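User: Is it possible to get a 3D structure for a protein together with its bound compound? The compound here is MTE. I've pasted both below.
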Amino acid sequence: MLIKQKKSSDIASSEITSKSVFMNRRHFIQAAAASGLIGSIMTPDMADASALSGVGKTPYGKGLTPTDQKLVTSYNNFYEFGTSKDDPVDAAREFKAKPWKVTIDGEVGKPGDYNFEDLVSPHKLQERIYRLRCVEAWSMVVPWVGIPLADMLARVEPTSKAKYVAFETLHDPEQMPGQHRRVLKWPYVEGLRMDEAMNPLTLMAVGLYGEELPNQNGAPIRLVVPWKYGFKSIKSIVRISLTEKMPPTSWNRSAAREYGFYANVNPEVSHPRWSQAKERIIGEGYFSAKKETLMFNGYSEEVAGLYTGMDLSKYY
Ligand code: MTE
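Assistant: Yes, that's possible. Here is the predicted structure of the complex:
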């Protein structure tokens, strides 16, 4: 991966929404929605704020403190909008995430072109506060809102031949200026083994911090696989294909020696160009002490069983 990072200390603290301000705002929105107030007090400006309603709480993320919202939404990897961390927030401003369709095909009983709303609305939204660990050795904590991928897949009825799930990002260089450059072969593609896709942790995210997903974070719908390096969590998905064969993945295709299909967070398996033993915490300042990387990013209990008997230094 191209490593060209801006120091998190470059972002003025005045630009960062403190957690208490966020919590107050969220409580206000929740309370207003519950009391039926929101319809009557909403100004045109607030209608743009795109708060998500009916989000259920879950135990995921107990004890984790979310990274400031301003950092989550301004320090991004989204090469379709540029290779610097601060490119996507500006370059994706005019991106049209509505209307949106997702094609689901391959080994499923109910293939089709699904409208985003039809895909999402049958499910109750859940908040999942997860660690996000990038292969570049930094991490943050994100309060995602979404639907378990398993629930979404169950509705399209995978056949017994489905062994993998392949994902594809939109290919639209008009809207995604980074696709004019050949930093990667476009569109961005990713994949999971079927049992990884069905694991309860695997999420299709449609929001974060109680609001619709900002464009720079992969609007309107993206994958989140918290025990794997962040590059597996593909953004702005337009196709989900269930396949018999292991699908190609973007970073593996670009540098197979450096990025495997599995990409499980593993402090013991170094990237050929840097160690993965420690990570820099976004929001704690560039020169603050690094933290030990956790096996499977701290989700061993939930996922270690998926890899029993596999040599994880070989299947990296
Ligand atoms: N998805 C697409 N389509 N394009 C990308 O460049 N970057 C990946 C992943 N998903 C990427 C992508 C990487 S390297 C990371 S670390 C995460 O998105 C970052 O997600 P965030 O910007 O929401 O923190």
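The first strand starts at residue 101 and ends at 106. Residues 5-47 have pLDDT under 50 and may be disordered.
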